[in-house]
Design brief:
single chain, two-stranded parallel ribbon, 6 strands, 198 residues, mainly alpha, two-stranded parallel sheet, binds adenosine monophosphate
């Protein structure tokens, strides 16, 4: 009953609509680098004003730098002072083997109409390149090539791995094994959230 807010999806929406943010973000995303913190934080601020976030929310792909984490922590601390009794932040990192992520990312294809995600290796559509539901031609994200994948992984190690350590030090961090079927990963996330929400 709470929204999943993916900063990658929000940025791709801006790219599609050709907004000033989208025009600036497109090339950065295409290189596998991170969009500047101030722009992403501002985008998250706007999204969190939506009333569907009143009971909580899942941030997917955010925070991705220590600056973003510090900004989020400050914002949540302010809210906790204004409205005590809310739930604390819980950071979950889904850990997947490097070669497995490579297959998931380079094999990923999306339906542009219903957004169903396929994978040419492990979950292919019935007809090559065509969505089972909509019959639409599947598309591949511009940054899901092997070359950009490698840069995204380097970016992760340099800028996002420290965010794990930040929340680990605060006792608000869980790592979940993502090399399992989806239902088991989901159960692992729920168990981690229940353990850490106290
Ligand atoms: P994702 O859909 O999460 O894989 O994100 C795709 C791309 O969007 C990333 O490689 C970044 O270029 C950009 N992006 C998404 N989330 C963030 C973020 N929190 N901070 C900076 N850039 C981001």
């Amino acid at each position: 009953g709470i929204p999943q807010i993916s900063t990658g999806d929000l940025l791709r929406g801006n790219v599609c609509q050709g907004t000033p943010l989208g025009l600036m973000a497109k090339e950065i995303m295409g290189r596998g680098e991170l969009v500047p913190d101030t722009l992403v934080n501002e985008m998250v601020t706007v999204r969190l004003q939506h009333p569907d976030t009143a009971n909580g929310y899942i941030l997917d792909g955010f925070p991705r730098t220590l600056v973003q984490a510090g900004w989020l922590d400050g914002r949540l601390a302010e809210q906790a002072t204004a409205q005590p009794g809310g739930l604390p932040v819980i950071a979950v990192s889904i850990h997947v083997d490097y070669n497995q992520i490579l297959r998931r990312i380079t094999g990923r294809r999306n339906c542009p109409v219903c957004q169903t995600i396929y994978n040419v290796y492990v979950h292919p559509p019935k007809q090559d390149g065509i969505c089972d539901v909509e019959g639409a031609a599947l598309v591949q994200r511009a940054d899901d090539t092997e070359e950009v994948f490698k840069e995204r992984m380097r970016t992760y190690e340099a800028q996002t791995a420290p965010v794990d350590e930040h929340y680990r030090a605060l006792g608000r961090f869980a790592e979940v094994d993502g090399d399992r079927p989806i239902d088991q990963i989901a159960a692992g996330i729920v168990a981690a959230v229940e353990r850490l929400r106290k």
